[in-house]
């Protein structure tokens, strides 16, 4: 039961990242996405509200037994923006992102990943590659 709860929390956190990325892209990134969790956790200039909650504030953060990270998509054709984002981002926004949740050291469980396509994928054996292979199972 504990494993199911930690996996459900990881999936929910990836959904939060997807939602934050959609908001970031439409309001701050000029149609591009943050590629570091720090940038999603940084509010736009003149605002106090970030795009995700502080519990996912940096790459490598561990939450509910999972380690989370965000990166530039490895998909062909991914490009960087030339327009500065509205929140003094530490990394240049890109046209695609890759977010992953891997079991923290000593924890069991499935690996999860998502991208700017919004689908959450799973693998029971190993971390999911960037870009996500088409054959990777989808979370139901």
Task: Explain the overall architecture.
With 140 residues, this protein is of the alpha+beta class. It has 2 helices and 6 strands, in the order H-H-E-E-E-E-E-E. The protein has a 6-stranded antiparallel β-sheet, covered by helices on one side.
H-E order: HHEEEEEE
Structural class comes to: alpha+beta
Major beta sheet summary: 6 strands, antiparallel
Specify the overall morphology: globular
What Rg do the Cα atoms give? 15 Å
* Average of per-residue pLDDT values: 95
Total strand segments: 6
Strand content: 15-25%
Distance between the termini: 18 Å
Low-pLDDT stretches? none
Q: What percentage of residues falls in helices of 4 or more residues?
A: 10-25%
Strand order of the largest sheet: 1-2-3-4-5-6
Give me the number of helical elements.
2
């Amino acid at each position: 039961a504990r494993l199911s709860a930690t996996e459900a929390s990881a999936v929910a956190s990836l959904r939060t990242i997807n939602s934050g990325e959609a908001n970031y892209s439409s309001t701050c990134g000029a149609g591009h996405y943050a590629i570091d969790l720090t940038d999603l956790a940084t509010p736009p200039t003149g605002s106090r509200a970030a795009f995700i909650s502080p519990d996912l504030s940096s790459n490598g953060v561990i939450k509910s037994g999972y380690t989370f990270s965000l990166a530039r998509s490895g998909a062909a054709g991914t490009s960087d923006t030339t327009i500065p984002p509205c929140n003094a981002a530490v990394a240049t926004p890109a046209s695609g992102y890759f977010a992953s949740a891997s079991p923290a050291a000593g924890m069991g469980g499935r690996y999860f990943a998502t991208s700017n396509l919004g689908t959450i994928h799973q693998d029971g054996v190993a971390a999911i590659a960037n870009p996500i292979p088409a054959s990777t199972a989808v979370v139901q």
